[in-house]
Amino acid sequence: MNGTKKDIRKLSQADLEAYFTTIGEKSFRAKQVYEWLWKKNAHQFDDMTNISKNLREQLGEFFQIQPVEVDLLQKSSDGTIKNAVKLHDGNVVESVLIPTESRTTACISSQVGCSLDCTFCATAQLKRMRNLTAAEIVDQVVIIDEESKRFYNKPLSNIVFMGMGEPLLNYNEVIMAIHKITLPEGLGMSPRRITLSTSGIPKMIEKLADENLRINLAVSLHSAREEVRNVIMPFSKKFPLTDLLESLQYWYETTKTRVTFEYIVWGGVNDKKEDVDALVRFCKKIPSKVNIIEYNSIDDPKYKQASPEALEMYINGLESNNIVVNVRRSRGKDIDAACGQLANKTTS
Ligand code: SAH
User: Fold this and answer.
1) H/E element holding 247?
2) Residue 20 Cα, ligand 1 centroid: separation in angstroms?
3) Which of 108, 123, 216, 262 to mutate to test the pocket of ligand 1 (most atoms within 8 A of CB)?
4) Do the Cβ atoms of 253 and 215 come closer than 8 Å?
5) Into how many domains does the chain fold?
6) Which ranges of 78-225 does DSSP label H, i.e. alpha helix?
7) Residue 339 is among the residues annotated as catalytic for this protein
8) pLDDT tens across the length of the chain (348 residues)
């Protein structure tokens, strides 16, 4: 029976209004139910106390709410928390809470697995099973907000789409989730505190720019040399760096927010002066900053963290050209919660 009921969180507020009108109810019920679903995160119709029992039952006959649940919570020695989040169909994704002095960040997934083939990323070794729905994305945020309050006495402050999956290849649901997270009739969080991270799909970056969402954009660049990037991120053969750059220039012109490049430096892969020079040239063409992220090993002998000297060369090269560069320390490595390590290890 459950399988035949429609997931009510697939309906927009306008859809709900239409539904209530057809069953002879006042259309303001739509707003009430919508708020229960998206602002108050109700998991069952009986939670909706300003709706009559009769109407709640009627809703329950036609619709279902399909909340996700935390299957396993792991806490790292540095305070990072990783959730294995079980979806209604048994699939599992992972999401991570990263606490610091000044903020707590939720790192959330947008797909079960990933269809891209970045050779250094554990998630790429899982096939893409399916896209998450907007509700499944928002549920991860709600769970991490609750955990942040429970464990760290403060609400979630930032959200990064840096978990499993490529958010721009689940475009519609990701955009809908961002709306639910930011709109006042949803969670009401500031879009400025959201960062969408993409491997770099130029057409979709342009489309995202046109949405006028006021979110931040990060691009996993890892090399500004076509021949190197094509090897470490084979899908990028379809998306030349010139196209990527053009899409980012469009992003900047449209949104006036600068892009962040995520960049890992590996020994013997991209640790030479010509790699630094290529990155500097690329960054000069677009207002941007660079986050150098630590490599988290996925046990592939081709990849190892570059030497401190190579990192120095990058930092000096960028800074001497007035490009802002941060070096990011990994968090949650002991529980495989760090970037690129999300691979459902505990469930396979
Ligand atoms: N598909 C999106 C979001 C998920 S990956 C993207 O590519 O941006 C989130 C970040 O983790 C990306 O910057 C990615 O390049 C990085 N990453 C992947 N594997 C990693 C690893 N083994 N160590 C460190 N970072 C990794």
Assistant:
1) helix 241-255
2) 44
3) 262
4) no
5) 2
6) 134-152, 171-182, 202-210
7) yes
8) 455 899 999 999 999 999 999 999 999 999 999 999 999 999 999 999 999 999 999 999 999 999 899 999 999 999 999 999 999 999 999 999 999 999 999 999 999 999 899 999 999 888 778 999 999 999 999 999 999 999 999 999 999 999 999 999 999 999 999 999 999 989 999 999 999 999 999 999 999 999 999 999 999 999 999 999 999 999 999 999 999 999 999 999 999 999 999 999 999 999 999 999 999 999 999 999 999 999 998 888 999 999 999 999 999 999 999 999 999 878 888 888 877 777 777 654
Ligand 1 atom 20: residue of nearest CA? 340
Its domain, for residue 55, covers 2-64
What tokens were used for 107? 């790192």
Q: Note whether residue 181 is domain-resident.
A: yes
Residue where a domain stops, chosen among 15, 31, 64: 64
Report which of 132, 1, 153, 143 is spatially closest to residue 63, judged by C-alpha positions: 1
